[in-house]
From TrEMBL:
A Pfam short name: LigB
Alphabetically ordered keywords of this record: Dioxygenase, Oxidoreductase
Record's protein name: 3,4-dihydroxyphenylacetate 2,3-dioxygenase (Homoprotocatechuate 2,3-dioxygenase) (HPC dioxygenase)
CDD domains membership: HPCD
GO molecular function: 3,4-dihydroxyphenylacetate 2,3-dioxygenase activity; ferrous iron binding
Xref: SUPFAM superfamilies: LigB-like
Top-rank taxon: Bacteria
Occurrences of domain Extradiol ring-cleavage dioxygenase class III enzyme subunit B (ranges): 7-279
Enzyme Commission designation: 1.13.11.15
Length: 296
């Protein structure tokens, strides 16, 4: 029986890549990079063999798609932001077996899901950026799932998340799942791009993101799940926040009550809100309670 070892909502802002390069933005996203490296460290420690990414940069206009090729490699330049990410080389192994299992579980739940092992089907940067910081040693296999869902019901995305968990439980291995997308996502007006590098576009979005961070820290997912459709709509959630819906589907939706740990606190990037946040799993909660008893 397989194990879900880690679940997180993560940033993938391309300024992380810019942050590595010499120049005026050097170091600007070190906090986000450190958050990714900590997730990687924990995954190594817990024996994770595969990382599944809900990728809000993979736009799909019909069905849910799982990219589970056996191997990925290439040189990536972003079509959206070629001045941020260019000529980024990557190479990762995939996990066709688990990808097929996820699609099968989803289909059994009535979700129109398909798995693909097509060598010309490339990864998007919602997967490539985090893998750069978490998987530079090629230790983890990678599966990418489309989460920029243009015509899809939240109900189906929630089921897709549940299907991922069911597949993991039947899989012989240990898995981490990452929802790769922003909190609010009002990209900065083009003429204000420079001043918006480290700030929000709209005060409304910042206040909403702060409130959501508070709810997550307190484990108030009954309230959060109720407001999620409006939050995604009014705060222009990236990919309409289907990544977050999938993540919560995996975790038990509004029954989930973990107190979320922020490895990278809320920060603004090009007008949007970003975090690296680990959603504790029940085993962790038990471990934490035990640790507290020992400390007491
Ligand atoms: Fe993005």
């Amino acid at each position: 029986m397989g194990k879900l070892a880690l679940a997180a909502k993560i940033t993938h802002v391309p300024s992380m890549y810019l942050s590595e390069m010499p120049g005026k933005h050097h170091g600007c996203r070190q906090g986000a990079i450190d958050g990714h490296k900590e997730i990687s460290r924990r995954c190594h420690e817990m024996g994770v063999d595969t990382i599944i990414v809900f990728d809000t940069h993979w736009l799909v206009n019909s069905a849910y798609h799982i990219n589970c090729a056996g191997h990925f490699s290439g040189i990536y330049t972003s079509n959206e932001l070629p001045h941020f990410i260019r000529d980024m080389t990557y190479e990762y192994d995939g996990n066709p077996e688990l990808g097929r299992m996820i699609a099968e579980e989803a289909r059994q739940m009535g979700v129109r899901a398909q798995s693909h092992e097509i060598s010309s089907l490339k990864l998007e940067y919602g997967t490539l950026v985090p893998m750069r910081y978490m998987n530079s040693d090629l230790h983890f296999k990678v599966i990418s799932i489309s989460a920029f869902c243009t015509v899809h019901a939240f109900e189906d995305s929630r089921k897709l998340g549940e299907a991922v968990l069911r597949a993991i439980e039947k899989y012989d291995g240990t898995v981490a799942v990452l929802a790769s997308g922003s909190m609010s996502h009002s990209f900065i007006d083009d003429q204000r791009a420079e001043e918006g590098m480290n700030s929000y576009t709209r005060e409304f979005d910042e206040q909403m993101d702060r409130r959501v961070v508070h709810l997550w820290k307190e484990g108030q997912f009954r309230e959060f799940c109720k407001m999620l459709p409006e939050y995604a709509q009014y705060c222009r959630g990236e990919g309409n926040m289907h990544d977050t819906v999938m993540l919560l589907g995996l975790l038990g939706w509004d029954k989930y009550d973990g107190k979320v740990e922020f490895l990278t606190e809320l920060f603004a990037s090009s007008g949007t809100g970003q975090v690296n946040a680990v959603f504790p799993l029940s085993d962790d909660a038990v471990n934490e309670q035990t640790a507290e008893k020992i400390r007491a």
